[in-house]
Write a structure and sequence with these properties.
By secondary structure, this protein is mainly α. It is 50% helix and 0% strand. The chain is built from five helices and no strands. The longest helix has 19 residues. This is Cytochrome c55X.
């Protein structure tokens, strides 16, 4: 799919400060991982791996992070992360989230 994540991730990944990157990595591991599995392979929520997200539009995933999914356990993270930070998370997931807890980009 032309609008798939890998191409979108290469186009425009926001530049964030190293401290904020560490905070976002922690957020994904702790908050997202609590429902999507500690390795993001799925749990209460679906897998957040690169193959699982490959055909999902980037904008839709960013909107889901910010607004949640009504009628599901997925909460909104607007107010916790900005739109560019949600896009950064989506781009990292599209690349394969850093497997090592100390890894960040």
């Amino acid at each position: 799919m032309a609008a798939g994540l890998p191409a979108a991730a290469q186009e425009a990944s926001p530049q964030l400060q190293p401290q904020r990157i560490r905070e976002l990595v922690h957020l994904v591991r702790q908050d997202c991982g609590s429902c999507h599995g500690l390795t993001l392979q799925g749990g209460l929520g679906p897998a957040l791996t690169a193959p699982a997200l490959r055909d999902k539009p980037r904008e839709s995933l960013v909107a889901t992070i910010l607004g949640g999914r009504p009628g599901t356990p997925m909460p909104p993270f607007r107010g916790i992360v900005a739109e560019d930070e949600a896009a950064w998370i989506v781009d990292r997931l599209a690349e394969g989230f850093p497997p090592d807890p100390g890894a960040s980009r």
